[in-house]
Fold this protein.
Amino acid sequence: MYGSGRVIPSLIVFVGLMTFAIWYNAGKAQQLPDPEKPAEYEECVRDTQFMRKSHMVLLHEWRDDILRKSGQRTGVTASGLRYDRSLQKGCMNCHDDRKKFCDECHDYAAVTPDCWGCHLEPTKEAR
Amino acid sequence: MKKDRRDFLKLAGVVAAAGIGATSAFQSLLGGEAEAAGLARVGAAKKSTDGTRLGMAIDIRKFADNQELAQRCIEACHSIHNVPDFRNSKDEIKWLWNEKFENVFAKDTHTRQSPALQGLPVLTLCNHCDNPPCVRACPTKATFKKDDGIVGMDYHRCIGCRFCMAACPYGARSFNWRDPRGTDDKGRPFIRELNQKYPSRTRGVVEKCNFCTERLAVGELPACVEVAAPHDAMFFGDLNDPNSKISRVLREKFTIQRRPSLGTYPSVFYII
C-alpha cells in the first residue's frame, strides 16, 4: 500500500481520538438519576413505570382534552385522590422542586423540554 | 405516423398544461376554495342555534359614565392571565383594552356620526366569532373553536406566523415580540406580578382573550364581567339559552356588533 507508513498510524490515532469518550468512560458506572419523590404522597396519577416512560404523553393528552374538548380539569387516582390535570397546578403540587425532580432525569437523558418558558415553577414561598 | 422528438415534446407540453389547468379550475368550482375563503358561509342563514354558544354584552354608556371601571376590568384580566406590559405601544399585548369609538365601529358611509362619540373609549376584546377567520387562517390548528363557542388557543402549537393576526378584523390578537418573562432596561419585569395559577406565554407566540375559559371551568364568571357585573355594565352567558341573562339583555336592549357585514358572527355585543 502506498504511504502505509504514515496512513496506518494516522488512522489509528484518528480512531483513538474519535472513540475517546467511549474508552475514557469505560468501566466507570454513570451516576443514575435519582429524582426526589415527594415524601407525603404514596402514589402518582398512574403507576411509576407509566409515569417514568410516558408522562409527556399524559401531559399532552390532558392539554388537548382540556383546551380543545373542554375536558375534565380534575382526575382521580387509583386510590381515590383528586388531582388537577395540570402541570403547573397538578404535577408541581406534589413534585414541587423542578431541579430535584424534573431536571434530574432530563439532564441525564439530555432532553430539554421547554415547559418552563411559559409554565411557572412553584416559588420558594409556595413550597 | 412518424413522430420526431420536437413534436413529441410539444404534445407533452400541451397535455401537461391542460392537466394542471383543468384540475385547479375544477377544484375551485367544487367550492373547496370558496369555503376556505369563507364566502359560502357569509350571509348564510345562521348556524349555531343548538348547543352552547357563550357570549357577552358590553354597555357602552355604563363605561362612558364610569371611566375607571374599564381600567379595573383590564387590570383584573391582565393580572390574572399574566399579560405582559412592554411599555411600548408597538409591542403591546392586549386581551382586553379600550379603543376609540370610531375605530371600534367602522364608520363606512356614516360620515355624520355624532362628534360626542368620537374618541369615546369602548372596551374591546376577542369577539369569539361564530365564524372565526383566525381559525381558518391558522396553519397549525393552534387556534380553534370549541363546542361552547369560545375561540381558544393552544400556545404549544403556535409557530408565530401571525396569519391569525392578519385574518382577525378586530385586532384582537397580539404577538410576543419580546420575552414576556423578561425585564426592561431598568430591570422592571414586564409582568408585574406573576399569577402562579396561570402560565405566561413565551416569545414568538400570538395571544388573545380566552373568555376566561379556565375560570368558567370552575364556575366563575370571566374576570372582566366579575368586576363590571355589579355595575350592570357587562353581561355574560349562553346565547342559545333563551333564559340566560345575556339572552334577556339582548332581547330587551338595542345592541350592535362589530363589523357585522364581514360575516364573522361575533359573540360580543355592544349595548348602545
Notes: The first strand of chain B starts at residue 54 and ends at 59. The interface with chain A takes residues 144, 146-148, 152, 154-156, 181, 194, 196-202, 213, 217-218 of chain B (CB under 8 Å).
